[in-house]
Amino acid sequence: MTLLPFILVIFAAFLHAAWNTATKSIAHNKAVPYLGFLFISILALPVVLIQPGATGTIVDYWYLFLITGIVHASYYLMLLYAYSRYEISVIYPISRGASIVLPLAFSLVILNDSLHTGSLIGITLIVLGILVKGFHTPSQSRSVWPSILAALGVGILVSSYVVIDQIAISHGIDPYLYIVGMYIVFSAVIAPYIFFGRSNDVKEAITSLKRYSLFIGAASMGAYLLVLIAFSLAPLGLIVALRECSILFVILFSVVFLKEKITLLNIISSLCILIGAICIKTL
């Protein structure tokens, strides 16, 4: 991997950790991130539509935009549910690790694929890290497991949209157009729930939480775009492994900004998940 994709992926990991930390801080309000995504996508829409062939691309690959929009809507709701119930220093590493290990487990059990040594080591480390996070606070184990299951669900959805992303880029769809199209579909799918089911959240977001909306929307789109650009500059496995360093950024942000208490066992389990992800993608 050359220096440029390395810098792009590291900065993308930083942005991803930052917007997730901001989302955790206002997880009670389901409208704040949504309005940020909606505003940024509407702002960017005219820029991508003037590109030659943009309309034709949307017509030709409408099904990819639709599928990824629906998957992202499910991801959004599941993520906010998990963040509203437990600490980001637990939820985020689990969801990132699960997004890598669950597809491998599926291929091993259902498709009878063979896995190399690096994958087996990585799966073991990730599963160990997840179990440690679930059991390291016995007094809270009953309340934390629904959140851990939600984090695992987020991981499934992440792995799903990553596959869709790869298909879209392989078809030559412009990354800018793809991201904006995805956010537009996502916004349309989830709009009834936000505007009719969470109207009080919308009012609070507009009146007092606008800065969170703008930051989350811009950082999310920026992180997504940087990774898609990096896909064309370096091997996929290296990119996916490197961007998992966002786990380290989240641990740091959770202490500095959210004042979460991080135990040594929590740090070790997060490192297990991070190293496991790197083993799977690089060994």
Notes on the structure:
The chain is mainly alpha-helical. It has one domain (3-282). Helices cover 84% and strands 0% of the residues. The chain is built from 13 helices and no strands. The chain has helices at residues 3-25, 31-49, 54-60, 62-85, 88-109, 117-135, 141-170, 175-197, 199-208, 210-231, 236-243, 246-256, 264-282. Helix 5 crosses helix 6 (117-135) and helix 6 (117-135) runs antiparallel to helix 13. It is globular.
* Main beta-sheet strand count, sense and barrel state: none
Our measurement of the CA-to-CA distance between the termini, rounded to an integer number of angstroms, reads: 15 Å
Radius of gyration, whole Å: 19 Å
Shape: globular
Mean pLDDT: 86
Percentage of residues in strands: under 5%
Using DSSP, what is the number of strands? 0
Number of helices: 13
Instruction: Bin the helical content.
Output: over 70%
H and E order: HHHHHHHHHHHHH
The low-confidence parts are: none
Count of distinct structural domains: 1
Structural class, please?
A: mainly alpha
Can I get a quick summary?
The protein has 283 residues and is an all-alpha fold. It has 13 helices and no strands. Helix 2 packs antiparallel against helix 8 (175-197) and helix 9 (199-208) crosses helix 10.
Write the layout of secondary structure elements.
Blueprint: H1 3-25, H2 31-49, H3 54-60, H4 62-85, H5 88-109, H6 117-135, H7 141-170, H8 175-197, H9 199-208, H10 210-231, H11 236-243, H12 246-256, H13 264-282
